[in-house]
Each structure stands twice: as structure tokens, then as C-alpha cells.
Amino acid sequence: MIKRNRDLPSLDLLKGFEAAARNLSFTKAAAELFVTQSAVSRQIQTLEEQIGVALFRRNHRELRLTEDGQTLYKTAGEVLRLLRDVAGRLGSRTAGMLTVTTTVSFAALWLVPRLNDFRRQHPGIDMRLAATNEIQDLEREGIDLAIRYCTPRTAGSSAVRLFGELVFPVCAKSVLAGRRLTSPQDLSGEVLLHYDDPERRYPWLSWEVWFELTQTQGVKPAGMLRFSHYDQVMQAAIEGQGIALGRSRFVAKWVKQGKLVLPFGKRYMCTPADSRAYFLVPSPRSAGRTEVGKFSQWLQQQALAEDEEVQ
């Protein structure tokens, strides 16, 4: 390789390198940075040409850092973390912005419908909601607070438990057409709505697990509809397209409104066996911020006030 100059590499090149080095994958780095895999590959190639050393060993289906790559990764990771931290602190101090992350489903089905109440109580707090199903590094991404559905151990000692949830079948009244289901075996001949979860992050939301927990075998549905996002599953259920597995905290309002019913009543409700619940997880950098305290208090009030009829 030819060393072109001793100028500092661009920030974009360092960001691409840091993501690739951390994931040991150009593909995962590309997904994280919302660019193509070939774009990350070109960034790495350009960076290697600029500094004059190889940063990765590219073997068949394997990516490894060279010794020089490991040295640069340690420094680049720390520099980027410091830059994000400073930028986050300056932005928060200037605008009073509160940044919250949670899953797409929780944001769409639980949090967003309630945010008007928070804005009414605290009109001076601006908020940014970063909805993603990926677990974010709060410090690195400049996020103040996460709402995560996880085990107590994963949540950490500084987390605050909001609530747990139950999982059970739900559907529109039109699906039953006046019939009454008495056992899971009655799901034969019904259309079942599935949440696609290729990485098995939410196994308790699969019909296979629910059938196992209810000791049910031999169900032959009339068909299956699969969706990549849980809010799509719920929309299909409300519109009478089939029977879905409902999450109690998401479907309570629709059951109360009569948009969804429980075909078996309150029987066959299941809960994850590992004590999962929704937790508030503050960033260490932001734990003492007034905005974080007010939002956390509001969330806990919402949790206490929520209708427990389905539970």
C-alpha cells in the first residue's frame, strides 16, 4: 500500500471502521450505519490506503483485525465515544432535549399514544424518540433513557421495573361469528397471525411456544399470515384477519373498547418463564438530569394508572 499523506482520516471513515471492527462484519456495520455493505468496504479500503497499513484480515467467512487494526480500533472507539458524549451534553444543555429509546412495538402501541399527557404536564421538555429493535449503547449513541423488555439481570442494578406482561390469544368478534372456543384445539381451521422473529428474541410470542405451554398438539390452522412488525400483527387482528397472540399491556385498551376479544376468556394466559418485564434503564451520563427524572416519574405513574382489567 502507498501512504498518501499524514492528514487525519475523515470522521465518516473512522465511523465505518469502528463499526466494522466492533462487529467484525461489514454487513452488520452497514446495517448499523444505514449504508450498503459495499459502501463500508470502500470506506475501509480508502482508510487503509490513506494510513498505509492493512486493518483487517479477510478470510473466508471471517473478518479479523490486524495488530495495526486493533491499535486503531482502541483509539478510534474512545475518540468517537468522547465526541458523542460531548455532542450529547452540549445538545442537551442547549435545547433541553430528552432522548429515549425503546422497541418499535412498544413505541407505537404503548408509549406514543400517551405522550400528549407528558407534553401537557411538561411543555418545556423537548423529546426525541429513537424507536429500534436493536439494543442501543446509551453512552455511545447519546441516549438518556431506554425502556427495555428484558430480565432483571440484563436491565442492571440502576434500572426501575415498570411492569410485566401476559401473552394470550385475541381476535376481533367477527372472527368468532358467535362461536365460543373452549380449548386450544379449537384453533384448528382458524387463520393464525404470526410475528416473524428470525433471531428468536421473543420466543414467547410464537404460536409454537404457546402450544407447547398449553400442552396442545395437532392443531391444523386454515392458514397463516406472517408479519415483520408486531404492530402489524395487532392491526390485522383488529381488522378480523385472524387470531393473534396479544401482549396484555398492548391489547388492554382494545379489549376494553371491544375491538378485540379473548376467545378463551382469561384462560391460557402465559408469561415468560425468565421474569422478563419492562424496565427503565437510564444512561449513567444522564441519570441525574432533571428531564430524565420527570420522564421516569411520569412513566411510573402511567404504569400504576393503567387499566389492569386484562391482567
Description:
By secondary structure, the chain is an alpha/beta fold. 43% of the residues lie in helices and 17% in strands. Helix 2 packs across helix 3. The N terminus is likely disordered.
Q: Biggest β-sheet: count, sense, barrel?
A: 5 strands, mixed
* Helix and strand run: HHHEEHEHHEHEHEEHEHEHEHEH
The parts where pLDDT drops under 50 for at least 5 residues are 1-5
State which percent range the strand residues make up.
15-25%
Order of strands in the sheet with most strands: 4-3-5-11-6
Spatial shape: globular
Secondary structure class reads: alpha/beta
Radius of gyration: 24 Å
Q: Strand tally, please?
A: 11
Count of separate DSSP helical elements? 13
Q: Terminal Cα separation, in Å? A: 65 Å
The helical percent reads 40-55%
Mean pLDDT: 87
Quick synopsis:
The chain is α/β, with parallel strands linked by helices. 43% of the residues lie in helices and 17% in strands.
Offer a few descriptive terms.
two-stranded antiparallel sheet, 43% helix, disordered N terminus
Topology:
Elements: H1 11-23, H2 26-33, H3 37-51, E1 56-59, E2 62-65, H4 67-95, E3 97-102, H5 104-111, H6 115-121, E4 126-131, H7 138-141, E5 145-150, H8 152-155, E6 160-163, E7 167-170, H9 173-176, E8 191-195, H10 207-213, E9 223-227, H11 230-238, E10 244-247, H12 248-257, E11 277-282, H13 290-305
Parallel strand pairs: 3-4, 3-5, 8-9
Antiparallel strand pairs: 1-2, 5-11, 6-11, 7-10
